[in-house]
Design goal:
Layout: H1 2-6, H2 9-58, H3 60-65, H4 68-79, E1 84-91, E2 96-101, H5 108-114, E3 126-134, E4 158-167, H6 169-219, H7 234-273, H8 283-299, E5 304-312, H9 314-321, H10 323-340, E6 346-349, E7 354-359, H11 364-380, E8 382-385, E9 388-391, E10 393-401, H12 408-424, E11 430-432, E12 447-448
Parallel strand pairs: 10-11
Antiparallel strand pairs: 1-2, 1-4, 3-4, 5-7, 5-10, 6-7, 8-9, 11-12
Helix pairs in contact: 2-6, 6-7, 9-10, 10-11
Bound molecules: guanosine-5'-triphosphate.
Guanosine-5'-triphosphate binds next to strand 5, helix 9 and helix 10.
Region (Disordered): 436-455
Enzyme class: transferase
Transmembrane segments: 177-198
């Protein structure tokens, strides 16, 4: 049963088509052969009986008269009949009166037993028929059975026997020819049936195999699948076409979904790293970049600086013209800072009106110059909103990153302290805080290098 379950669809279809055909062919052939050989045997028997039925009455007077020449000519005539190989006529005592051909000599006892309906044994290629010759009162219409002898009629007397032998070989040859032809027909029929069955089985199993392969690929995650559409039957062709349409739809949907997911992921990633108002990198990115900058200055001597930029009197804009005006100003300041720094520098918005600037590959003097350039730009900027005009400034705290610092947080604290100092000592100025190795950076000694106070 397990073996049956393992048979492929193709072989199952072959079995379904071929098994009944083979069984039917075997049965029909057996029947044809049986009927055919029986008919041939019967024909031989009938032929033998017909000959002895003719010979027995014809030989009656020859036997009575003891005329061997007459009997011999009767046998001669019988020998002309097809398949007759030998013939003999015996008298009542079993004495041979005439013979033709090579026949089996029968003993008188054997001849007598024929009365009792027994058939004498002969060679396989010989079929022997024996009939009694009865006296004149015999009934001409008596029938003798093949290979047997009939009993004489009432009031008649057996005066001899006619013995005819027929050659069964032509009949056997005919049988063999029938068998050969039948087998040839069966083999040819089965070959044609097999050929048709193979083609039919393939026309079903091939599309099914294609479908199975497609489904397996999709199950394995390959959605961009298309199977060949070669099916000749309407139903299988519809299945193949349907599968391809379905696979295409799933693949398209998946692609669209993936694009949306990618877009949403990119947007989320952007939002997680950028300030929504100004589009600048946010505090999280700033902290990462600062860490990278500190590591680069320690590892490769790529020194830089951190500037904290806190706008001065920004609140007035909010309070006078509303939050939207403040937003507008923040965006413009963000743009201004970006325009005034170098390409490798990183500008981030880290709070309400606070920006951070990380300067990369920069000497201390250049850093101070850049910070000062920025301060001047913000101080010179005039913000016009509706019919109002505002001038704001920026307090900038700077710390140089020279590779001596290990922890980015000490740079942060230092820059914050410097910015606080810039604010405290009158705003609109740049203050540098120098971090020393033994410095806990909580109370910075300010080193203002510029400080134009704007009132
Ligand atoms: N329009 C706007 N205002 C903001 C935003 N974030 C923070 N603020 C406001 O910005 C102001 C910042 O406060 P401060 O720094 O004390 O104001 P300031 O006038 O600059 O004060 P100084 O720094 O001392 O000169 C607060 O009033 C906040 O409400 C924002 O995204 N948009």
């Amino acid at each position: 049963m397990r073996r049956l379950a393992r048979i492929s669809l193709h072989n199952r279809l072959l079995l379904v088509a071929l098994l009944p055909a083979a069984l039917l062919a075997t049965l029909v052939t057996a029947l044809v052969l049986y009927r055919g050989t029986r008919t041939l045997d019967q024909a031989l028997h009938d032929h033998g009986n017909a000959i002895v039925s003719f010979l027995a009455p014809a030989a009656e007077y020859g036997v009575i008269a003891g005329n061997r020449a007459t009997l011999a000519s009767l046998l001669e005539a019988a020998m002309d009949q097809r398949e007759v190989s030998a013939g003999a006529i015996y008298n009542e005592q079993g004495v041979l009166l005439a013979s033709k051909g090579r026949f089996t000599v029968l003993e008188p006892e054997v001849l007598h037993t024929v009365h009792q309906g027994e058939v004498p044994d002969t060679a396989p290629e010989i079929f022997a028929v024996i009939a009694p010759i009865v006296s004149a009162s015999i009934n001409i219409e008596d029938e003798f059975q093949a290979g047997t002898a009939a009993s004489p009629q009432e009031g008649t007397r057996t005066i001899g026997w006619v013995h005819v032998e027929l050659d069964t070989r032509p009949s056997a040859r005919e049988k063999n020819a029938i068998i050969g032809a039948s087998l040839l027909l069966v083999v040819a029929g089965l070959a044609v049936t097999g050929l048709i069955a193979v083609r039919l089985a393939r026309s079903v199993s091939r599309p099914v195999a294609g479908l199975v392969q497609g489904v397996e690929q999709m199950a394995a995650g390959v959605l961009d699948v298309a199977i060949p559409e070669h099916a000749t039957s309407k139903e299988l062709a519809a299945l193949e076409h349907g599968f391809n349409t379905m696979a295409r739809a799933i693949s398209d949907n998946q692609r669209t979904l993936q694009t949306r997911i990618d877009d949403a992921t990119a947007l989320l990633a952007y939002q997680a790293q950028h300030d929504p108002l100004t589009g600048l990198p946010n505090r999280r990115v700033f902290e990462q970049k600062l860490e990278e900058c500190v590591a680069a200055s320690r590892r490769a001597g790529d020194h830089g600086a951190l500037c904290f930029i806190d706008l001065d009197r920004f609140k007035i804009v909010n309070d006078t013209c509303g939050h939207a005006a403040g937003d507008d100003l923040l965006m413009r300041i963000a743009l201004l800072i970006q325009q005034r720094v170098r390409e490798q520098d990183i500008v981030c918005r880290i709070g309400g009106d606070e920006f951070a600037l990380i300067l990369r590959a920069c000497s201390r003097v250049d850093a101070l110059r850049l910070a000062e350039h920025l301060r001047e730009g913000i101080a010179a900027f005039e913000f016009e909103y509706q019919d109002r005009s505002f001038s704001i400034g920026a307090s900038i705290g700077m710390t140089y990153i020279d590779g001596s610092q290990i922890d980015p947080s000490e740079i942060l604290i230092a820059a914050d302290a410097a910015c606080y100092e810039a604010k405290r000592s009158g705003r609109n100025q740049v203050v540098e805080y120098v971090v020393r190795p033994d410095d806990n950076a909580t109370e910075p000694p300010p080193q203002g290098i510029s400080g134009e106070h704007v009132s």
